[in-house]
Design brief:
single chain, alpha/beta, OB fold (Dihydrolipoamide Acetyltransferase, E2P), Rossmann fold, 5-stranded parallel beta sheet
Amino acid sequence: MIRRLAGGRNEGRAFSVDEVALRVRNLIDYDETLAHLTVEGELTDFKRHVSGHIYFTLKGQNASLACVMFRSDAAGQLLWPQAGDRVCVVGSVRLYEARGTVQLYARKLFPLGVGAAARAKEELRARLEKEGLFSPARKRPVPAYPRVVACVTSDTGAAVRDVIKQYRSRYPLASLIIVPCLVQGVHAAESAAAALRRACALDGVEAVLFVRGGGAKEDLSPFDDEELVREVARSAVPVVTGIGHEIDESLCDLAADRREPTPTAAAASVFPDRARELDAVSLYQKRLGACAQTSLDDARQDIDAVQRQLRQNAAAGIGSAAQKVDFLEETMARVLADRLRISAAKLGELERSLNNLSPHELARRGYSLVLHGGRPLVTAAEVRKNDEIVVQLLDGDVRGTVRSVASRR
């Protein structure tokens, strides 16, 4: 029998287990802090299940928290976590109603200790190197004179000031676009990856500077995040990194198209030195002018020599040509005289032949032309008795009438 407790707010009513669990779940689900939080602690009881899920416990000084990472998030998780590692877990706290326990549902897990971070970095480096992500063959050249450059970094740090200083002093002809992101903390890798995507999508961008100032090794751990490293490798334009100090080398440095030791060096490698370029142009102008003058002088000397040679050759050629002209004139005169004699003789023969064929000559020899109807009469069959005919003689025409026609056949 259930006894009612005096002073209770719900006197006379007993809650079911499901109702209590629902109330607890609602309290947790509507807590914005618990829905999106980052928890630090010591990793214990780390276990990978055959289903692909990862189960582990985060231990604090006086409490512990059960955690689970589902297969979809655990698929990219490295093998580096070990019991005793200090880690940072990003996720949300919810009630697991089947067991009545509060759990942290982890989405990402980061190492905090130097040893764990080193193991994670080395394991990821080996895997990505095997994929060819760091191959020199993938490296692309940065344009010598970029027109638009994007810089992905914190917009409040020293690194962005160093980049802007180099840009203004070296090559202000270009356009520099600052794309801000987080460069430290558990959300830095995700923020930087999104900023890289935005930078590459900007119109006209030809190169991306990805920089961060120096710091402790754990501060640079976001630049060893797998998704961020892959984002650098898949960038649509060349990426130049300047992360930390010269002794620092992140996996993003290995994936980038060019790695420089500092943000200042990265900016200097992308923006050409305007003063040096102008000095080089001035020097080239002087060299070109000197070469042009030398070439001009040489050409003038060559022209003078050619002119002298032409004058000499012309004089000799003119004399020889004059002799040839005289010889040709004499030859042509002889040829023409011979041809004229031959032509005159032929003309005389033709004239005599024509005279012999002329009607007058034929008439003198007793031949005359008989016409009938205005046409020459050639045969006896062409006329009949009483036809009118005309006989042409040297001094006149004789007209008559045909009395008879007799054929000689």
